[in-house]
Automatic annotation (TrEMBL):
Class in the EC hierarchy, top level: hydrolase
Domain Peptidase M1 alanyl aminopeptidase Ig-like fold: 446-548
Organism of derivation: Rhizobium rhizoryzae
Protein name: Aminopeptidase N
Family matches, as InterPro entries: Aminopeptidase_N-like_N, Aminopeptidase_N-like_N_sf, PepN_Ig-like_sf, Peptidase_M1, Peptidase_M1_dom, Peptidase_M1_pepN, Peptidase_M1_pepN_C, Peptidase_M1_pepN_C_sf
Peptidase M1 membrane alanine aminopeptidase domain location: 227-438
Residues of the signal peptide: none
């Protein structure tokens, strides 16, 4: 793979007017006749050839305006088709006939088979595995698609757009024709065919058009699609109400498949989903599963406007659709559930994943300028930081200003392939503001570090806040410019009340937001009666690291009194962190581990506070993870010491809070039949958190075993089983519970994934033996991405002590998996490999083992571009 540069972008020489595809489906030899109408773009040299992309393609036939093309007119390779001597300005038709083997397609890109169902995945560059085509997002055209297939095996024949008609064909075959009037790029093409069950509903849009809604699942799983359907209808309504966006076709379809490289795909009118994000019922899905389904259904649906109606000019603009659509799905979930709890979960995820990426060898700007393999840029930086950048625009412009900008963006660019610059300009023009400095968020990688310090002058009654920003160097970017960082703040007085609208000087201030735009800046607040406590970056208004040394008393005041619940959670976290860091240090040096009693009492006070929603209290009790502690330490990391220290802190909290936890465990069970709503889920989360703490006091095993036996839903069952497995891995009760669970759910792949995952995350080096044994288990399916992620992915991403075992065996295990999976499924292999992206932060001996494992992969001949690209960046 060659490196592609943003600076090299230029439009195609030929404009694609229409696409007409006819598929004759066959498991090993599908025939596709593709008819493309082009014309030469105005001003393009008459000698310029038409260049079409391919990937491992077999050409069967080629015609120009219905006549067979002489071999002298084109150059052919599996990766490219170049046609010369084409008309000057009048339209012409190229017919490309290819033969495809869906069954041999293990990459799951292009046309493939999963459980007997034909399905496609074309983003980013999968369409070129189906036919020779100008496979880039700025080539938009309406598509007509005809599918012909054996009727008995494939009663369902689907593609994008509206259904035109269908009927019987020859030899037991039938056909269906679809037309998508909305011009789209090839990455949004989809085809699905097979024998599937369907759940149907309708939605009436804001202009009173009736839209048919259909969710296709494997036969017998129809009942488990009800929640997804409900989430879809709520998403459609919300997009009308909040963004003014109405659905456009007369049908919207979702298909759930069991072999999929990612979560889901927003193909126009025909979303294809990993069935993990469609299927749910109380017996088999956890509250987290329900929340994920709601968020992903919404995300893919929202793409219809942010991604499909307005798409990306080139793949460098990926955040234009992904960051924006993540922002939209975050806002949707916040509106459907508890906004503060949602924000806490988002920030936890952002810090765990994106901050880690931004601080390592794979760091890149939200809008990169070069890539070797685009599939490696579907990253948490493009998605989650991209969403944060959108959120900051809303913070800076306010609700109305943001809406004006979005409306202008939709108005200006509907039907187009746009850029990040187009997006930003819409906000500038709609609000008459200059966002030039702000745009650095798209271009400069690295998490800014803001250092803050405050001084109160009791005589002058002023509070002086000094801020300084530093953006760390990242690969290819050694020097950075100061950015525009919006910091939401509050001054909390002695009595806990917030100081109302204080007078501030020193820079731009809008509502409760300080705008840090200089490298160093001093804000002075006047008429402050007593020494205030500053709560800064409330709601995580900017995705930064904040270095602000606040005393325990000050943090306790924020934790008790801030009106922003996110800030209260942040203060509790800031109270916890120094204890966890010190504990890791003491554990490493073999010293006794202690914990600040004020932190413990503040935490327990929050846990027991009936005025706070249970989900918030559960978030507070979920201390920073081992990975969070590692990130705070930054270098010379010893995961065993972090684990040992954190366990000691958890035990100290459990011992002090035993009665609080017993009370929560006994009272937090939601009444009545199971409901996945946010309030019930919050109660379950708090109760299960209490169960986790109680595992550190006498009777822990028995209590967890009983909780497992009593569980009447998957959330409680999996939580109890996790407590048993993680805290008492060698206990007979654990072995028995694991056996009961697998026997009960042996026919449910999604539940089996949980069984594998919770064993792969048992702390400690012995887990590597367990994982090796599980890879030989008859229920382990090495070709199913969900199963591989649940076992190997969970070990590498979510089990620091086992994966980083001191002898390096964890890295070797991952390396062997990566090289084994790579030839079949490069995207899956590459994704697993990113688990090693922070290897340089480990202690010297572990880092040596990690480097050796990476070099071993590097020595493998014939690595995919995906893995090769990552290895090179990680070893650089
Ligand atoms: N757009 C797809 C992701 C495609 C990934 C290609 N490697 C799902 C989404 O973000 O909605
Ligand atoms: Zn997306």
């Amino acid at each position: 793979g060659q490196i592609v540069h943003l600076a090299d972008y230029r439009p195609t020489d030929f404009v694609l007017e229409r696409v007409d595809l006819t598929f004759e489906l066959d498991p090993q030899a599908t025939r596709l006749e593709s008819r493309l109408i082009f014309h030469r773009r105005e001003g393009v040299d008459a000698s310029a050839p038409l260049v079409l992309d391919g990937d491992e393609l077999v050409l069967t036939e080629l015609r120009l305006d219905q006549n067979e093309m002489p071999a002298s007119q084109y150059d052919l390779s599996p990766d490219q088709l170049v046609i010369r001597d084409l008309p000057g300005s009048e339209p012409f038709e190229v017919t490309v006939i290819t033969t495809i083997n869906p069954e041999a397609n293990t990459q799951l890109m292009g046309l493939y088979r999963t459980n007997g169902v034909y399905c496609t995945q074309c983003e980013a560059e999968g369409f070129r595995r189906i036919t020779y085509f100008p496979d880039r997002p700025d080539v938009l055209a309406p598509y007509t698609v005809t599918i012909i297939a054996d009727k008995a095996a494939n009663p369902v024949l689907l593609s994008n757009g509206n259904f035109l008609g269908g009927g019987n064909y020859d030899e037991g075959r039938h056909f269906a024709a679809w037309f998508d009037p909305f011009p789209k790029p090839s990455y949004l093409f989809a085809l699905v065919a097979g024998d599937l069950g369907v759940v149907e509903d309708t939605f009436v849009t804001m202009s009173e058009r009736e839209v048919a809604l259909k969710i296709y699942v494997e036969h017998g799983k129809e009942d488990r699609a009800a929640y997804a359907m409900d989430a879809l209808k709520r998403s459609m309504k919300w997009d009308e109400e909040v963004f003014g966006r109405e659905y456009d076709l007369n049908i919207f379809m979702i298909v759930a498949v069991s072999d999929f490289n990612m979560g889901a795909m927003e193909n126009k009118g025909l979303n294809v989903f990993n069935d993990k994000y469609v299927l749910a019922d109380p017996e088999t899905a956890t509250d987290q599963d329900y929340a994920n389904i709601e968020a992903i259904i919404a995300h893919e649906y929202f793409h219809n406007w942010t991604g499909n109606r307005i798409t990306c000019r080139d793949w460098f603009q990926l955040c234009l659709k992904e960051g924006l659509t993540v922002y939209r799905d975050h806002e949707f979930s916040a509106d459907q559930r508890s906004r503060a709890v949602k924000r806490i979960a988002e920030v936890r995820h952002l810090k765990a994943e994106q901050f880690q990426e931004d601080g390592g060898p794979l760091a890149h700007p939200v809008r990169p300028t070069a890539y070797r393999e685009i599939n490696n840029f579907y990253t948490t930086t493009v998605y989650e930081k991209g969403s944060e950048v959108t959120r900051m625009i809303a913070t800076i412009l306010g609700k109305d200003g943001f809406k004006k900008g979005m409306d202008l963006y939709f108005e200006r660019h509907d039907g187009e392939a746009a850029t990040v610059e187009d997006f930003v300009k819409s906000f500038e023009d709609a609000n008459s503001v200059d966002l030039k400095q702000f745009s650095l968020w798209y271009h400069q990688a690295g998490t800014p570090l803001v250092t803050a310090s405050g001084i109160y002058d009791a005589v002058a009654k002023t509070f002086t806040l000094s801020l300084e920003q530093m953006i760390p160097a990242t690969p290819g970017q050694s020097t950075k410019q100061p950015m525009h960082i919006p910091l939401s703040y509050a001054l909390i007085q002695d009595n806990g009340a917030l100081l109302d609208a204080p007078k501030v000087s020193g820079g731009q201030v809008t509502a409760d937001v300080l705008h840090l735009t200089e490298k160093a800046q001093v804000f002075v607040f006047e008429n402050v009666p007593t020494r205030p406590v500053l709560s800064l970056n409330r709601g995580f208004s900017a995705p930064i690291n904040l270095d602000f040394k606040q005393s325990t008393e000050d943090l306790v005041r924020i934790a008790r009194h801030d009106t922003d619940l996110f800030a209260r959670w942040q203060a509790l976290t800031d109270l916890a962190l120094p204890n966890l860091l010190q504990a890791a240090k003491d554990a490493r040096e073999g010293k006794a581990i202690t914990c600040n009693p004020v932190f413990i009492s503040t935490l327990l006070e929050a846990a027991a506070d009936e005025a706070l929603e249970p989900a918030f209290r559960a978030q507070a009790l979920a201390l920073p993870s081992e990975a969070d502690i590692a990130r705070e330490l930054g270098s010379n990391i010893d995961p065993d010491a972090i684990h040992k220290g954190r366990q000691a802190i958890l035990k100290a909290i459990a011992e002090s809070g035993q009665s609080v936890f017993e009370n929560l465990f006994n009272t937090m069970k939601p009444e009545g039949a199971f409901s996945p709503d946010a309030a019930s889920a919050g109660k379950r989360a708090l109760r299960n958190s209490a169960l986790g703490y109680l595992a550190y006091v006498t009777g822990g095993t028995e209590r967890a075993a009983k909780a497992f036996a009593d569980a009447d839903n998957m959330t409680d069952m999996v939580q109890a089983l996790t407590v048993l497995a993680h805290r008492f891995p060698e206990d007979a009760a654990t072995a028995e519970a694991l056996a009961t669970f697998v026997k009960r759910f042996e026919n449910n792949p999604l539940v089996l994934d949980k069984w594998f995952a919770l064993q792969a995350t048992i702390p400690g080096g012995d887990t590597l033996n367990r994982v090796n044994a599980l890879m030989e288990h008859p229920l382990y399916v090495a070709t199913n991405p969900n199963r591989v992620r649940s076992l190997v992915g969970s070990l590498a991403f979510a089990n620091p002590t086992a994966f980083n075992r001191a002898d390096g065996e964890g890295y070797r295990l991952l390396g062997a998996q990566v090289t084994q999976i790579d030839p079949r499924n490069p995207q899956l292999a590459a994704r697993l490999l990113t688990a090693m992206r922070s290897w340089r932060a480990l202690d010297a001996s572990r880092a040596d083992h990690a480097r050796a494992a990476l070099l071993e992969i590097d020595r493998t001949s014939k690595l995919s571009t995906d893995v090769r690209d990552l290895i090179e960046r990680m070893l650089k």
